[in-house]
């Protein structure tokens, strides 16, 4: 899976930081990537991670949440506060916030003329 990347900035919620992506990123893509990161870190098979189960059920601590948010943020081009993994407890909910941040960034960039709309599709 390929998700547009850029350098993140510090923020208290998921905040998009790069110019508008040329392809739309779906919640499913972000959730699948986060699931992959979680499975790798916990050394579990992908099918053992339920995207609707609270992350706390997997024993996510502050170090793990910091690692996950940094890796996901780098891959998606958004800055994600590790508290998001506590406030939005499931993979699916985190993915919703990331995609919302990317969409808001795209709309903001279009409004100020720094971005251009791109085709929707799989990044």
Automatic annotation (TrEMBL):
InterPro entries in alphabetical order: ACP-like_sf, PKS_PP-bd, PP-bd_ACP
Q: Name one GO molecular function term.
A: phosphopantetheine binding
Q: Which SMART domains match?
A: PKS_PP
Asked whether the UniProt record includes Phosphoprotein among its keywords, one would answer yes
Q: What GO biological process terms does the UniProt entry carry, in alphabetical order?
A: antibiotic biosynthetic process
Region Disordered, annotated ranges: 1-24
Record carries keyword Phosphoprotein: yes
Top-level taxon of the source organism = Bacteria
Q: Which UniProt keywords apply?
A: Phosphopantetheine, Phosphoprotein
Pfam families, per this entry? PP-binding (PF00550)
Where's the Carrier domain? 28-102
| Residue ranges, compositional bias (Low complexity) | 10-24
Recorded protein name is Carrier domain-containing protein
Tell me the organism: Streptomyces hundungensis
């Amino acid at each position: 899976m390929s998700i547009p990347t850029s350098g993140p900035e510090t923020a208290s919620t998921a905040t998009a930081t790069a110019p508008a992506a040329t392809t739309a990123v779906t919640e499913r893509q972000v959730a699948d990537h986060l699931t992959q990161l979680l499975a790798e870190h916990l050394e579990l098979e992908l099918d053992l991670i339920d995207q609707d189960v609270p992350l706390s059920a997997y024993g996510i601590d502050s170090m793990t949440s910091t690692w996950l948010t940094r890796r996901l943020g780098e891959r998606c081009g958004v800055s994600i506060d590790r508290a998001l993994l506590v406030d939005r407890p499931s993979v699916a909910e985190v993915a919703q916030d990331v995609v919302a941040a990317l969409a808001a960034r795209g709309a903001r960039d279009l409004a100020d003329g720094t971005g251009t709309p791109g085709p929707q599709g799989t990044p």
